[in-house]
Amino acid sequence: LGPPSNTRFLSLSRSLFPLKGSHGHLSTAETSLLALLPFDPHLLFQMGHILLRDSDLDLSFNSRSSCSDSDRTSVSSSRSSVSLSDIRHSSAGIRQGHHRNDPLWSPIKSVTLQDGGVDIRHLELIRQLGSGDVGRVFLCNLKGFEQAKYALKVIDREALALRNKHKVPHVQIESQLLSTFDHPFLPTLYSKFEFRHYTCFLMDYCSGGDLHGLLKRQPGSRFEPCDVRFFAAEVLIALEYLHSRGIVYRDLKPENVLRREDGHVMLTDFDLCFLSDVDPKLLSPAMANRGTSTGCFSHWQRPKPGGMPEFVAEPSSSSRACVGTHEYLAPEIISGKGHGSGVDWWAFGVFLYEMLYGCTPFKGGSKEETLRNIMSKPLKFPAGSSDRPDLTAANDLIRRLLVKDPRKRLGCCKGAAEVKNHTFFDKIQWPLIRSCSPPRFDGNGRRRRHVIVVRKGRKGIVRGGWSWKKLYSWLASRRRRERRRA
């Protein structure tokens, strides 16, 4: 079969034996047909699976991203094989930073030493993870390294330029940012390569999914305040890092906060960011004196006068672009008068509200009504929330973040340092947050409750929210009961 017939043969096989399911595996019949072709069928399938036309989604003002597969289409090509000249990769030049000891780098280094870099020939696709307005994301591994799982983001530059020309710069910004990140709560870019008019990013795979999916599986679609505090603290540190580098995120929402295998978070999707100059400042003392606990949660004391000054670096430029998810848009974005990093602190307040109460505070019956509510409707909390002492600090933080005037909004003056000093985060030791044990959830997304097992003659082990004082009190009462029985 010559090259022109290859395309017709592949199209015929696709029509007679369509792929089934969402895991992207070839049927036995289709594999047999493709085996007759003069090129690697597995490679062709991968390229056909990746190079799908993106669904025409406009998620800029869509509150929920789509994770469903679009209809698969065949790929027509005048070539019968993949030319190495079509592939440009840059894995060798990517910085490893604090992730240099990550075991996922070992397969990358091995392939790079052998072939000069990672490209489409080295990848084995497993299934599609999601899709959006700029591309698709697949779960994959390197051939020969089945235990090392990665996420592959694929962007069709030609289709994007034809359909959404205004989003091409967004892709370029995301590509630029991913190659420079060096932070535990941001993605690691293991490799970037281009094939014809496709750009591919090989990044971390977060097996825990996103916080939105986890939130919807909780009772009442809401997290416990202690879990919200943990997730919010790590997101806050990630925002602090972005702002210190002049990056305004503009796309914070539970769908874009992923959970790694170890339970810690990772922000994703940076195509809506804008880059700004940074105005570093050295502010008067505001840092709290911490207790002597060795954990990341400890007793907190009010700041004492004469402490060390704080270093604050926040973006100083503004933008007039109207981008983001409509339920998370700040009033200054809607008004079009220009916005800066304060939009991230507004979104952080909406993010806290949704995790605590299962909905966003200004959601209306339509997008237009939601935008009107954001501009004019006062903030309200669900009935009964004011009667819960564990929500008092959280509600106060949300109230200070969701101030419609950015000049009076918490975080717009002193940045993340101002937010971190709020009483909601009193028990957190910020330098040790990465060592803190994350909330644990079972396979159904339900919160795991820690059980303390006490054996006679031994001290119990405290896990979760228990304190040593409570444990010793419980043990003492147990001994008293045993003595009375004796």
Summarize the structure.
The protein is an alpha+beta fold.
Kindly list the characteristics that best describe this protein.
single chain; alpha+beta; Phosphorylase Kinase, domain 1; six-stranded antiparallel beta sheet; two-stranded antiparallel ribbon; 12 strands; 31% helix; globular; non-specific serine/threonine protein kinase; kinase; EC 2.7.11.1; ATP binding
Q: How would you portray this structure in words?
A:
It catalyses: L-seryl-[protein] + ATP = O-phospho-L-seryl-[protein] + ADP + H(+); L-threonyl-[protein] + ATP = O-phospho-L-threonyl-[protein] + ADP + H(+). It comes from Nymphaea colorata (pocket water lily). Its EC number is 2.7.11.1. Residues 65-101 are annotated as: Disordered. GO terms for molecular function: ATP binding; protein serine/threonine kinase activity. By secondary structure, the protein is an alpha+beta fold. It folds into 3 domains: 3-204, Phosphorylase Kinase, domain 1; 216-435, Transferase(Phosphotransferase) domain 1 (Transferase(Phosphotransferase), domain 1), CATH 1.10.510.10; 450-486, no CATH class. It has 14 helices and 12 strands. It has a 6-stranded antiparallel β-sheet with strand order 1-5-6-4-3-2, with helices on both faces. Strands 7-10 form a two-stranded antiparallel ribbon. Strands 8-9 form a two-stranded antiparallel sheet. A hairpin with a 4-residue loop joins strand 2 (123-131) and strand 3. Helix 8 packs antiparallel against helix 10 (342-357) and helix 10 (342-357) packs antiparallel against helix 12. The longest helix is centred in the middle third of the chain and has 20 residues, at 225-244.
